[in-house]
Hints:
Strand content: 15-25%
Helix content: 25-40%
Number of helices: 14
CATH topology of the largest domain: Aspartate Aminotransferase, domain 2
Radius of gyration: 22 Å
Largest sheet: 7 strands, mixed
Mean pLDDT: 96
Distance between the termini: 48 Å
Number of strands: 17
Number of domains: 2
CATH superfamily of the largest domain: Type I PLP-dependent aspartate aminotransferase-like (Major domain)
CATH class of the largest domain: Alpha Beta
CATH architecture of the largest domain: 3-Layer(aba) Sandwich
Amino acid sequence: MHQIAGGGVDWKAIREDFPILRERAHGHPLIYFDSAATSQKPQAVLDALRNYYEHDNANVHRGLHELSSRATEAYETSRQHVAKYIGAATANEIIFTRGTTEGINLVAQAWGGKFLRAGDVILLTEMEHHSNLVPWQLLAARTGVRLRFVPVRDDGRLALEELPSLLTPEVKLFAFTHISNSLGTINPVAKLCQKARAMGVLTLVDAAQSAGHLPVDVQELGCDFLAFSGHKMCGPTGIGVLYGRAELLDAMPPWHGGGEMIVSVTLEKSVFKKAPHRFEAGTPNIAGAIGLGAAIEYIEGIGRAAIFEHDGRLAEYAMERLAELPGMRVLGPSGQRGALVGFVMDSAHPHDLTTFADQHGLALRGGHHCNQPLMRRFGLPGTTRASFYFYNTIDEIDRMIEILRAAARFFT
């Protein structure tokens, strides 16, 4: 469907799968460069959501009637799709959550609450999104656990030369992002997991910016936990995934209590199901899970290796073009990076620049990107961020440069 002669991907045809890309903003054709915040949804995902609500809408696992059976089958089939998508050993290692944030909070509360004690250390990095920082701060305040951080160098990469002095026996968990949502840095996940495992340290990977952009295999990475969000990879909002190794999930207590996650309940006590259901209390986001399954099928139909190559070309080209502009500073590493560029212009505050761009139909993101400590590390109140996905084009980047040139003239 998306192939051209010679076996390549027809990226132009792919754009036609996204109805929203035909929208106009302030009278201009929409250029959507905010996919790191949330991606747009192809027709196949929209159809899957509508089909569920029109034909199969019922609660899962509990009903004996036909609609409940169909809904349950679709919901659990999506869990199997996710397991295959990230290389999990079994679908029982896949917990549906509301997103990356909830997945990390689940680990902090359920695993951290049971296994961590005062004096234990959680190792993070200075480039973490607030979702992979605030849950650990809350845990530290409650238990006396200490937080430790791998510094970020001026080039946007982790100061891994300092890892031997940071990854010590006191560390019980090393939690870090795969791709920085502000810098575009791609961290060497497999290497970091290997070093942690050699010290007996568990690992958690924030894959929010990577799961939809490049091949992710938890067996190859060697991580213990991995979290990502459906809405950043063509899926619906309000659905995400926490992967955990089976033996770890089985040792963790429930986080939320309620219906569905129990085997039996008396007035005095409850007996809980095994993972993953013990972590999915109440009616889940059934449509969201089904939509995520459809998004995975859509992405796999293109190929994540091809997406990574395509997105990388866009990011590289954007960096080259941004360097032409006066008073421009681009953050993050040169060379291979994730599908985004964060920058500041001397002539305008990021909020003003983003507002100007919006008036010309260009959707950028301006601010601290839930990365306030990282922004302080670079002495900035925030940045303007352009983030790309496989439905974006070189021509759109050229148009962005025209708009930014106009902004520089306007604010000077």
